[in-house]
Amino acid sequence: MNKKLFVLLVVLMSLSLLGIIFVQVYWIRTSVNDKEEQFSRTVTDILDKVASRVEKREMKEYSDRLASLADSIGEPKSTQYKNFLFVDRDLNSDEILFYSHGILEEDYNITSAFFDINTGGNEDTTTIKNFTSKRTKAVFKEEYGLDGKSYSLTPIQRAEKIGGLSSIDKAAWEDVFMEAAKAKPIHKRVSKQELELLLSQELSNRNIDTDYEYGVYSQGYPTKVRSRKFKFSGTKMYKAPIFKDSEGSSNFSLLLTFPSMKKYIFSSVMGMALLSLVFTLVIMLAYSSAIYQLIKQKRISEIKSDFINNMTHEFKTPIATINLAVEAIRNPKSIEDKEKVLRYLGMIRDENKRMHAQVENVLRISKLEKNQLDISKDRVNMHDIITDAIAHIELIVQDRGGYVNAHLDAERSEVLANDMHMTNVVVNILDNAVKYSPETPKIDVFTEVVKNSIIIKVQDHGAGMSKAVLKKVFEKFYREHTGDIHNVKGHGLGLAYVKRIIDDHQGEVYAESEKGKGSTFFIKLPLI
């Protein structure tokens, strides 16, 4: 994948993810704000309803008391005044309509104690009058005798109705009552039990299940009517006037607070918020995985390209050598020289073995990946394997003026392992030590027993590795870049093969290194 396209793809995916997260956060905040606004409207409506119910209850109590008191007095003094009379005669039907509307005044002598007003011990009375209307309608028909002299009015219809004058009377009574009720202390007009009952009922009807505190304040000052934990603080507080007068104003306010309001509101959207959060996390994980896979595939693509280049380079040399040897043998002058022919045939054989070994390494790793490599294990001596492995590279080391010293000090060295694969493991590590020694190879091999395991330590004084390289050195196809990727022959499979074989033997392999000071590889295997 083109590097610019890859960067563009990552940027677009990142922006999309950030956009999704922003939308989810915005949606949650909007939902919380909407719920809070809806909650405020509901609570305000509840307070108005509770205040109205308290006022109506108080009004009814006074009305009932007045009715009871009026009944106990007996017949009040009645007077009719302002009588209106209307007479109409229909000439076509000979009918006469009589309509009268009079106002009856009933006077009650009721003491001022009815309104709980302190009059200083005086026995004066407060006059309460009741006004009702009396409406009478009568229709008569004029009739004359046969002689034309006799005359009479025959009643056809008569109706009489006595009732309240109008809503004006009710308004007047309520106004009188409201003014008189102002003199009573607030705790006698409403109780804490009544407010708690009404508030609980209204909150329950609106499906609001959370703790609340309430209080009645008079012009900003607390009264006795309040819950035990109510505090006039800076928290969200809902207010509604209570005991309003005829002009709609009031000295008292019913206050309501919810200590856990934020928690309650957030819990109402918690389900959708958690679901949204889960989906967002899934998208983030999918995004992270996709980015990781893209980076991994890009790195694998680069490593495979590097591997193909290295393998091509390593095959080119033996192929070229074989071609030269074949051409030399075909030369008529050389073909007669048996010694030269044998030398060229030996070169062809060695280069062929070299290419075969490379192919075998690739096939071994492929079989290990697919778990198709059959590794049979027998009792083997690791000291013998190490000695055999050193013999494989000793000539190369000596040719470069170096050395390989073995310090086989382990008292026990027998393990359950595959002879061939374990030899290849040690050879690969020793071969790496030789390859990555820019100057004279100086290699030491140590063995020791730690608890029930044998530790094999291969130490060199070569180029060493950085910490970043040390983390990836056992990965397949990985090779450290040193400017020219062909300055050290290899294909990045040796140490990957080593790790897979050691893991299969229930062992451990790891390395310690410092750039410019060499490396030390450790192999830990369980002893028999």
From TrEMBL:
Name of the molecule in the record: histidine kinase
Pfam entry (one): HisKA
Keywords: Kinase, Membrane, Phosphoprotein, Transferase, Transmembrane, Transmembrane helix
Enzyme class: transferase
Biological process annotations from GO: osmosensory signaling via phosphorelay pathway
TM segment ranges: 6-28, 264-287
Species per Swiss-Prot/TrEMBL record: Flagellimonas chongwuensis
Matches recorded under CDD domains: HisKA
Sequence ranges assigned to domain Histidine kinase in this UniProt record: 310-528
Keyword Secreted recorded: no
Entry's EC annotation: 2.7.13.3
